[in-house]
Amino acid sequence: MSYRFMRMMIFFDLPTDTIKDRREYARFRKYLIKSGFVMMQESVYCKLILNQSAVRPAADGIRKNRPPKGLVQTSYRRVNDLKKGESIMKAKKIFTLAMAAVLTLALLAGCGAAAPAADPTAAPAADAPATEAPASEAPAALSGSVSTNGSTSMEKVVNILAEQFMNDNPGVSVTYDPTGSGTGIESARTGSCDIGLASRALKTSETGLTGTVVALDGIAIIVNKDCPVDDLTIEQIAAIFKGEIKNWNELGGEDLAISCVGRESGSGTRDGFESVTGTSDACVLAQELTSTGAVISAVAANPNAIGYASLSAVEGQDGIKALKVNGVDCSEETVLDGTYAVQRPFVLVTREGETLSPAAQAFFDYATGTAANDLIRQAGAVPVAK
Predict the structure, then answer these.
(1) pLDDT tens, 153-182?
(2) CATH tag for 2-110 (out of 1.10.760.10, 3.40.50.450, 3.30.70.240, 1.10.10.10)
(3) CA distance 288 to 241
């Protein structure tokens, strides 16, 4: 029996112009990693496949999971034959050598040039130039664990950063415990986690801690697409959700009773909305729903409705529109420059004056650096690093 190992390469060039595009990009990349592909460089992934018969299922999976827009190319080549009883370590050695040749192909592909097929069994040249390491890669010897604890609203951001960081640093484990901002801040203060997570700024009473903003989260105020109202002030939004303004005709709309749609108690989006609008524990909701998607669907189905949702979830949705707030559109640009009022920070919390472990410091530096910006956008937040 022979093991005819195949090297399967995936090259892709996907658009990231809109939030929807970036979500598709992140979904496809996550599929590749879960399927056992290794990132050679950005947009170039490789996997060692047992034999020819295993190629078709792998190719079918790529075809079914590829994003609707952009270019995805697949190539595969036989690496070598191993007979039964030979060490699987030989296959791994062959694969490692093949990767050196693959990097040349990947670099050429990134420049848009056609690359000749490389000899997968040839040893890499001794004087071959070093390729650029992935953006989040720390020293090769980096190992240990990093514990994060706190805001449930930061789940997507933390998970996508942790996934990439662990992929680049296999000796490090990053954990996330979604306990809420208050608990995360307290855990950072007591030292029960390395990095606390908060979807709000630190209070003046929360001393002995340092808060570092890693991203901003814009919260869009949404209405049905047929609603004639286009712009509200923060004060008007607060009055609507408190039940003080009850009819759209009070705001220049039609004579229709306003129906407020919001998230359940404990939702990070609700906490952010209420903290900005000053409506904590005062909202009068016709519907209290458990997901952003449910809020968007409810508003799209009801011409009287008004609700709120994270900016990343709203773009491209049918049946709704995002209102201006104080005359300012809700967009990544206006969230970043601070002109859009309904927003909140995503904050990494550490103990003031205390040195993090090498692994925790490396993750902190990666999360707050420009190398993480694209991943933060893919998670639906607005990066702040420049």
Answers:
(1) 788 899 999 999 999 999 999 999 988 888
(2) 3.30.70.240
(3) 12
